[in-house]
Specification:
Layout: H1 4-26, E1 33-34, E2 45-48, E3 53-56, E4 64-70, H2 77-92, E5 99-105, H3 113-122, E6 127-131, H4 134-143, E7 148-150, E8 161-163, E9 167-170, E10 176-180, H5 186-199
Parallel strand pairs: 4-5, 5-6
Antiparallel strand pairs: 1-10, 2-3, 2-6, 4-9, 7-8, 9-10
């Protein structure tokens, strides 16, 4: 029969092995926010300004899709976000070919396809502008719990648009995997993108 001491040792050994296997299975924590299993797969039907055609989320399968909601008249957050993503894409090197940044306008009234095309192409070829009707936009933002709203127009008809600033990351199969927040550094985003791409190069 096992002594009490040997029984405790055996239990500690089993516990240690279990913890080791668990750590090996889950891997180190992501530097950004892991949202695996918390959001639905990427799904939409919108018009891509860069190609002037109706597209579906499935058209981007096989790529890593970074979904961001903004508008071209945004004075600060959107330009800063797209500039950061441009740096991330540059850091990825040739792997950037497998990434698409999907910039969905929350201001379709002012963001015509031609304006959206010029705006996104300024930041690079991997950034695509998407535009939809208000019903389509509401459906998409509700799906991913994104909020937006319009301020009061001034005498010239200009108005501000409040909107969520997070970036949703989907893998090649359209599954939600990561959430990039404004506080996440370019280095952290780059590291997590490289790790995600390495899962299925």
């Amino acid at each position: 029969m096992f002594s009490h001491k040997r029984c405790i040792q055996a239990c500690l050994y089993v516990l240690g092995v279990s913890l080791l296997l668990s750590a090996c299975h889950s891997g180190p924590p992501w530097q950004t926010k892991d949202i695996s299993g918390l959001m639905p797969r990427l799904a939409f039907t919108l018009t891509e300004a860069n190609r002037d055609k109706l597209v579906h989320a499935t058209d981007y399968r096989g790529k890593y899709a970074l979904l961001y909601f903004g508008y071209t008249h945004c004075p600060d957050v959107c330009p800063l976000t797209l500039t950061r993503l441009k740096r991330v894409l540059s850091n990825l090197g040739s792997a950037a070919q497998d990434v698409r940044v999907l910039f969905v306008t929350v201001d379709p009234k002012r963001d015509t396809l031609s304006i959206l095309k010029r705006y996104t192409e300024f930041y690079g070829p991997h950034i695509r502008g998407l535009r939809g009707t208000q019903p389509a936009l509401r459906e998409l933002t509700k799906m991913y719990r994104v909020t937006y709203g319009y301020g009061k127009a001034d005498a010239q008809g200009n108005y501000a648009v409040s909107h969520s600033s997070a970036i949703y990351v989907f893998d090649r199969e359209g599954r939600a995997r990561l959430l990039f927040r404004p506080t996440d550094s370019v280095a952290a985003i780059t590291a997590d993108m490289k790790r995600l791409i390495a899962e299925n190069p």
